[in-house]
Design brief:
18 strands, Rossmann fold, six-stranded parallel β-sheet, five-stranded parallel β-sheet, 4 domains, homodimer, alpha/beta, 702 residues, elongated, 28 helices, 45% helix
Amino acid sequence: MKSIEIQKIKEAADYIRYLTLETIEKAQSGHPGLPLGCSGLGAILYRYILNHYPENPEWINRDRFVLSAGHGSMLLYSLLYLSGYNISLEDIEKFRQLGSKTPGHPEYNIKNGIETTTGPLAQGFSNSVGMAIEGKMLAEKFNKKGYPLFDYTIYTLLGDGCNMEGLSYESASLAGHLGLDNLIAIYDSNSISIDGSTNITFTENVAKRYEALGWEVGFCDSTGSVESFFEKIDNLKKIEGKPKILITKTIIGNGLNKKKNTNKIHGSAAGIDEIVYFIQNSEIKNIFERKYGKESIQNREKLKEITQARVENKESLLQNKKVVLFMKQCIEDNKPIYNKWRELNLKYKKAFPKEYIKLKQFLNPSINDSMKEKFLNYTEDKPDSTRNIAGRVLNLCAEQIPQIIGGSADLASSTKANLIFSKYIEKKDFSGRNIAYGIREHAMCSINNGLALNHTMIPFSSTFLTFLDYMKPGVRLAALMKLNHIFIFSHDSFYIGEDGPTHQPIEHVNSLRLIPDIYTFRPANDIETAFSFLYFLENLNGPIAIITTRQSVMKEAYNGSFERSELYKNFKKGAYIFYETRGLKNPDIIIGASGSELGVSYKTAKLIEEKDNLMVRVISIPCLELFSKSDKTYKDFLLSNKETTFVFIEAGSHRGVDLFYDRNMILIDIQHFGESASGKELQKEYGMLCKDIYDKIRKIIH
Amino acid sequence: MKSIEIQKIKEAADYIRYLTLETIEKAQSGHPGLPLGCSGLGAILYRYILNHYPENPEWINRDRFVLSAGHGSMLLYSLLYLSGYNISLEDIEKFRQLGSKTPGHPEYNIKNGIETTTGPLAQGFSNSVGMAIEGKMLAEKFNKKGYPLFDYTIYTLLGDGCNMEGLSYESASLAGHLGLDNLIAIYDSNSISIDGSTNITFTENVAKRYEALGWEVGFCDSTGSVESFFEKIDNLKKIEGKPKILITKTIIGNGLNKKKNTNKIHGSAAGIDEIVYFIQNSEIKNIFERKYGKESIQNREKLKEITQARVENKESLLQNKKVVLFMKQCIEDNKPIYNKWRELNLKYKKAFPKEYIKLKQFLNPSINDSMKEKFLNYTEDKPDSTRNIAGRVLNLCAEQIPQIIGGSADLASSTKANLIFSKYIEKKDFSGRNIAYGIREHAMCSINNGLALNHTMIPFSSTFLTFLDYMKPGVRLAALMKLNHIFIFSHDSFYIGEDGPTHQPIEHVNSLRLIPDIYTFRPANDIETAFSFLYFLENLNGPIAIITTRQSVMKEAYNGSFERSELYKNFKKGAYIFYETRGLKNPDIIIGASGSELGVSYKTAKLIEEKDNLMVRVISIPCLELFSKSDKTYKDFLLSNKETTFVFIEAGSHRGVDLFYDRNMILIDIQHFGESASGKELQKEYGMLCKDIYDKIRKIIH
């Protein structure tokens, strides 16, 4: 065991406290409580525990550290600065400012040592579980006897808030089931949350809870000296077959006078008085004395003036070369480990050339032209539900691209998102490519986000569209981090039938569209389904949501006569002409539809042609966001002039926003909850049959 | 202790199995697994355990039963039918049909004995926690020594699915903290979920987990005889100071041949062969023999024909008078209890006339004219954030209406949704009206739904708008059940500033609008905030979402010169003219805005008037859904003719749906994630300052 220099850790811890206090005081915004409580154990982690190499933050076998309690971001930024990552003292001075490297909550940037975006509670913890699964999978896939290419550990720091969130329970339950012994959680147990002591609401036995979930639980008192923390972590690290959690008793706002151990220090600047108290009673006193003279610092009033001036004038933060020197020593200490790994990597290349090529490919997923052709030319023999089609296309993807792994929240048999050629991962056997997440939608999504962070894996998550609600926070983070994450949401709209309104998504498709940086496709047939996946694979620049049906889509939605590469070009613009009356110059009516409503739109168009002798155009709009942002010429071309009657048909809610829809437009949507009855019956009940739509259009055009 | 007639329970259990099997076979849709596994314990519950009185399902002191595992609805419908509730055999025959009393999943209808809508997993369990809190609160408020008006128990049946959901953990943790000993959960532990054995993903120690959360845990083996179930429940009932859970080992699909104990029977019809096997090997054989002759029933092939014909021709279900007689005996058995309570109620009326009047009022919340006046004339002295204003208006509501209770997910100090004159409820003291939900948004919402079900309580839930995501499934159910539930979502849009994109809601306001049966108000000032609450209180016909700001809204958003009752009349239509150029006939430009953008809209209007000498109208649109549905005349009047330039300003996402917006309309919204910086800086960065908006409008109109 390494020996730790406890006095130097104390100095580092107090310097982190200083950076935190002064920075947040200047910004008048931020959360000092956690960094003050955890600075000591943070310093031990970065200095002694992590197998990391700050000069190469992207080192694939580095130990990862995730600050799940993201509001304590000043702890992370301080540690990254001190350990020699790409974050400087000047960066810290820009804390919470526009465009800085040090935003309010940590934002995903591996190059800067930030493994994931955190802030929404328990998300980081859940990501860590994903990262641990990734570690196990990489080891299973590439490690050879004597060649432990992947043997890193995930450390994740979570607080009372994370532990109260159901997401942390879900993720911990799965981590325990899978025996993820490469995961060590550090529970910053300070017993204070925003509204006061956790006694007012959180009195469960956390240790027993984690034991019940199959975790090894350790205890550590870090309220005074943090000496034992190193040893406790070291002991936990040795335990095999289980994830581990170290319950670490800390004091929120440690180092302060009156606000210590209170909720007042959770999320607000400490105030000058507290900073003065801290300086006079901490290891930081020396650097102040050196700059301002011993006398000034011992005099409370003088020190107050100095501190006030420093904050008001936003003076540069005081440097502490001694602490920097000490903390940066982690680079030298870890150099042999890092170099040994690089040698191992080279030896591996020689000993296992095929595997090495695979590994390189694995680290750079891409789609080549021959794969692309398969998607471009994808065809089904006969009409089917898009969930079935998407299931087959997903398998095609996964056969081509080994990085694709994932599963469903106990609905694989229904959503069809299941790799039929592979098995489930399980404890001690991570060779499968399916994951049985259990009925834990939220954990599925956030664990998969964790799998996507390092770009070695491309996860897919799947459930009924209506249960998107159970995992929305994770979907949002996938979009925010632009992770390559495939969402397959099946059982769209009232068509799912008898299960009733709780299971019938109404508002969900449009809710997804509103989220920035995720594209939602509602494919209408085999071609559009294959194209949706192709669009994702070609770009690999963020998540995609593919909405599929339970029921077979109407045969009218199929049209095999399109020239595929031309069609795909237009598909990528979000919409294309699916049909138009022969010899059409200017249509009398344009019908737009997405997904399962394309068939009925086409049928209606034919009826209008036949009965009313009018010129009709049908546009398929698989992706509204893309079409809305496509160039004006293309949009004007498809939608024709303003005078043409435009009908849009979609079995989902446009409630509220339809206020602004073109007043000439006919919107046929669903703005009420569904009911328990067969999909067909509801289609009739809700006026979504061809004849209903025809009547509606006819009434308006005549 | 009552003695139970075990043979009769067996017969009842098998009759429930029969009803389930044949009904689902006819519907070719439904979930037989749970009803088959739990029919015995269900029969014991309804026959012996529940203090209920089916002739008055709304009896306020009845024991409640919640089927959290809602997919097993056939169990509930069978039990309600057999016990004499308002559900007949004919109703069961309409299982999963349009407009029936027996939809796919149970739908909230207390008159029919259905306490809440379930199906989305763990929601019913969470509702039960709310109902238990309600019981404790009513008892605390109204019970007197010797007058236990409220002493009911909540029974809730949950399965593996409910237990895997993080929501069940959150709710159980709070229930344990509050020591809700009037709550008894029955865990239907059959170890099978949709994708297979729970071994593939759910191997935690559930008993230990509940113990860790402060629950009393009992065990019961109901795989064979269900005899011990009654005793075990009876034992648990006696334990005070803790919620209790009975882990009941069952067999999914019990009574079948090959599909028993497999995932094949979870959610699909059993098939004729299995039904035949069941009939021949169960207590149901007799009623078949009576109808079809002993010989036919003993002959497998003949019975198969009979069963096939019954299913194909949708023949009426076979009656079982003996079972009905036995089960309905619960009415006679409970009559003394029910009558005793009614007498107690009358005695209470005499002994405590004042409290009795209060109780009556409590059961019928309403707002009278003098209260209404207070909201109509509500005024703040100076501009403020709408979160502060909403906090004060909420307190005004709560002072007027004693049913209002609730709180925040550990953000009361930030969202200001806190009743300042009251305290938190706690274990053994339920006299407070604030609830510290902890950082458990989902549990907050779904527990509050439970509180709202009986109309004795009007709960409020509050968190940052961005964390709506953590509780969306519950919000949807509040809307679906039209519960009187106030949602206060604070910290709207990027204006919240430094906390960064994870904390800045962008897509959320429009996401809420899309949900049927909930109205979303984004008030712009003091008046609109008070009006939003008034709108809710006047209607009491479903939930409301009130979106508030962290920052002070601009002083330009205030206008004290409106005639209030006239203004409120228009407010209820969703939009009204906030300002227009004096002497205006037809405006040149109309600017619409909601919430925090009303101020900047007014300022921009004044600039246009001044600099461009144009006629401008400003419309405030606090509720898009109401305005969209308002009558055409009013809409046309406010929005003028199509040629007038219309600008809509809102700091939220209209991504995707803006495709259909009037092509002449100028939409100024936010379709990207926010950043960490001050709200003011972001306002500039995102072109939301008056001068930016002015420039944008000017460029287009000239």
